[in-house]
Amino acid sequence: MSVMWTVKVVGLGVVAFSLSVELLWRLLRRLKPPKTLNEVLFFPSEVACMEHIFSPASPNSCCCPLPHGVETSFTRLLRFILSASSSLDLCLFSFSNMDLCRAVLYLYRRKITVRVLVDKEYSVITGSQVGALRKAGICVRNVGRYVHMHHKFALVDGRRLITGSLNWTLAAVQCNSENVLVTEEPRLVQPFVGEFCRLWAANDPSQNGPFSDQNVAHN
Ligand SMILES: [Zn+2]
């Protein structure tokens, strides 16, 4: 075997090895799971103006006395909700926070599919925004089967879960010690999707069967 032949074989071997390493590296990168969103927010949130969230093109347009351009737990929560691109499902015990209502109406006007489940009793308390949602045309279903429908969760695009102790009220956001978990972990999101679908179907007012949640006497 000539020296030249040996050099060629070794050279080809090096090239083949390099290509193999490169291919293996690319394969491993593809197999690596994408980073899953997991975030925790704590409240009460610093009181600040939210105008820059709703009007990012003109952040200095508001002249109210509150601090402006401040990022807080609440701005973070609003951004997560406003990130919806196709659907927003809400399952809420109490809904009286006007900024959160504004965010929901903002999405609805941009053709995002919005479905809302609320506690039947708390949907009509003073300050409830449920009437404003219905007036805008959003489909809201009452849940009256339980002592309270005490959930507080939102599903953004069916793949991002927002849940925790926080009621969607001004007091909860500004005064209470509360927590909110935001996650795209499928093992956590999917059971909430299932629970929303279950409650949504069980509280369909067009289904007047004896087992409909809408028809269970509220004692
Ligand atoms: Zn302002």
Automatic annotation (TrEMBL):
Keywords associated with the record: Hydrolase, Lipid degradation, Lipid metabolism, Meiosis, Membrane, Transmembrane, Transmembrane helix
GO BP terms, alphabetized: lipid catabolic process; meiotic cell cycle; piRNA processing
Residues spanning the signal sequence: none
Transmembrane segments: 6-25
A cellular component term, taken from the record's GO annotations: mitochondrion
Reactions catalysed according to its record: a cardiolipin + H2O = a 1,2-diacyl-sn-glycero-3-phospho-(1'-sn-glycerol) + a 1,2-diacyl-sn-glycero-3-phosphate + H(+)
Listed InterPro entries: PLD-like_dom, PLD_domain, PLipase_D/transphosphatidylase
Record carries keyword Coiled coil: no
Domain of life: Eukaryota
CDD domains for the chain: PLDc_vPLD6_like
GO molecular function ontology, one term from the record: RNA endonuclease activity producing 5'-phosphomonoesters, hydrolytic mechanism
Keyword Ubl conjugation tagged: no
Residue span(s) of domain PLD phosphodiesterase: 145-172
PANTHER family per record: CARDIOLIPIN HYDROLASE (PTHR43856), MITOCHONDRIAL CARDIOLIPIN HYDROLASE (PTHR43856:SF1)
Family statement: Belongs to the phospholipase D family. MitoPLD/Zucchini subfamily.
Protein name stated in the entry: Mitochondrial cardiolipin hydrolase
The species this protein was found in: Hippocampus comes (Tiger tail seahorse)
Classification lineage: Eukaryota, Metazoa, Chordata, Craniata, Vertebrata
